[in-house]
Write a structure and sequence with these properties.
Helix content: 25-40%
CATH topology: Rossmann fold
Structural class: alpha/beta
Strand order of the largest sheet: 2-1-3-4-5
Order of helices and strands: EHHEHEHEEH
Largest sheet: 5 strands, parallel
Strand content: 15-25%
Radius of gyration: 14 Å
Shape: globular
CATH class: Alpha Beta
Number of strands: 5
Oligomer: single chain
CATH architecture: 3-Layer(aba) Sandwich
Number of domains: 1
Length: 145
């Protein structure tokens, strides 16, 4: 069975409440339910973590090297600022997919750069909560499942 670490970065715990015109009204629990349903249909299991703290996300990535086959990550605002998160993903050498709810390239210019994307097999943005399911599908396909 394929094992995937799903990471939700800062402020994603506020989905459904935070800027619904940008991020929609779907909650993080709703997204996790969609992801778990998809994972079950693909004979995969998910370990899901949301944190507002960069170090906790980095610790989870480092730990995943011992048990996971891949990582699906929405780094939130850390996408544009965290070399440390980028280095953690690179260090564990697991296939990773970056997912974003909004189209970051249609937003403020500072959101157009991702430190995370270059160490991922791909990035998906702009499809709302479906960015996560598209990302998980792509990750499982990349792993070969």
């Amino acid at each position: 069975m394929i094992k995937i670490l799903v990471l939700h970065g800062p402020n994603l715990n506020l989905l459904g409440l935070r800027e619904p015109d940008v991020y929609g009204r779907v909650t993080l629990d709703d997204i996790n339910e969609h992801l778990n349903e998809l994972a079950r249909s693909r004979d995969a299991t998910l370990t899901i973590l949301q944190s507002n703290h960069e170090g906790i996300l980095i610790d989870a990535i480092q730990d995943a090297r011992t048990w996971a086959n891949g990582i699906l990550i929405n780094p939130g605002g850390l996408t544009h600022t965290s070399v440390a998160l980028r280095d953690a993903i690179s260090a564990v050498a697991l296939p990773a997919v970056e997912a974003h709810l909004s189209n970051v390239y249609a937003r403020e210019p500072f959101r157009h750069h991702s430190y995370i994307a270059p160490v991922c097999v791909g990035s998906i943005a702009g499809f709302g909560w479906r960015s996560y399911t598209l990302g998980l599908t792509a990750l499982l396909d990349a792993i070969g499942k």
